[in-house]
Amino acid sequence: MKITDIKTFLVDPGYTLNLGDTKNWVFIRIETDEGIRGWGECYTLLDRERSIAAYVDHIGHYLVGRNPFNIKHFTTVMYEDYADKQGAMDYFCAISGIEQALWDIVGKRLNTPVYNLLGGSCRDKIKVYANGWWDDARTPEEYAHKAIQVVRSGFKALKFYPFNGLKETYISKQKEQLAIDIVRAVREAIGPDIDLMIDVYRIFSPLYAIRAARMLEQFNPFWYEDPIAPDSIDDLAEVRRNINIPVVTGEALYTKSAFRQVFEKKAADIINPDVCSCGGILEMKEIAAMAEPYQVIVTPHNYNSATIGLAASLHVSACIPNFLILEYFVNFKARSDEISVGSFNVEDGYISIPQGPGLGMEINEEALTKYPYKNFVNPAVR
User: Fold this and answer.
1) What's 333's domain CATH number?
2) How far is residue 296 CA from its own chain's centroid?
3) At a CB cut-off of 8 Å and minimum separation 6, what does 73 contact?
4) pLDDT digits 0-9 by tens, 80-120
5) What does the alpha-carbon distance between residue 20 and residue 129 come to, in Å, rounded to a whole number?
6) 162 vs 224: CA distance, rounded Å
7) Most buried of 12, 89, 161, 357 (most Cβ within 10 A)?
């Protein structure tokens, strides 16, 4: 079998959060000379989708004519020779989507789900937590109302950003109090049994990250995600040593090398790599394996569609023993269902693992044409 073609699709997801963080999805379709095609999805950020798609197109020149089974060889060669061991987010997003599509082809060729090719499943269903549920909420009361709705829909865990809109490494007392009031309102609304994840989104200095965490401890958060920028693992370790909430990091780290310091310096209790940006399915499984001897658990980041990106995340989550919970953006489901053949449904806070060959999810190309790329401008760039 040989690869004959690779194509990208940029798709408007049809939804805007009050974070101002709207983006297009990037899908990849790889064709083979046996008529088997594979699908992949790249992680994207606002107004960087076209640069990621451009990477896919350039890398595709080196993919045509190769055997799709040689996945590890191809990703290694591309990092060492094409990227010259100088990877960046856009490159890793592109290679992650391509890698997924190759696994999809291999699974279809062998007529088995991808997780069966990675050691088999450790579980039959994947616990998920809700993100993207707050819509246009601004006040504590509005957040509480939205939280009640998502819990009533069946989720047992939810994540949000009480420090939404902050860009500085410090925080005023007024904004700090608003964030505390929002978390208090949500916790009181959903009760003590629902897991509540706090995402700080990489904004604070260690001092303010520690101060805010200590104020939030009374609400028993399930975790405290990315309290500071990921470029200082020593500072992250300092935060972890000084708070009583589990620390999460990893969505902005790529490949095993980037995670090595996190483990060695005991900087996090939990990691959340994204299968659409960390290097792909096998890279994510290997990162999870590295985490095992350090007693670090894995909660995959998944700011992707509820189609291919979710499918790839489900396969990895199924086969790693130190998995805990997977991210799920509720606001992406409607458009995802429109562009896919079949869908993944959340039942009582879980999604069953895919049963079909490959990734177990297909894209309706005709439906994609209804939602072409939309030029979203980043309002934070001034």
Assistant:
1) 3.20.20.120
2) 18
3) none
4) 999 999 989 999 999 999 999 999 999 999 999 999 999 99
5) 21
6) 11
7) 161
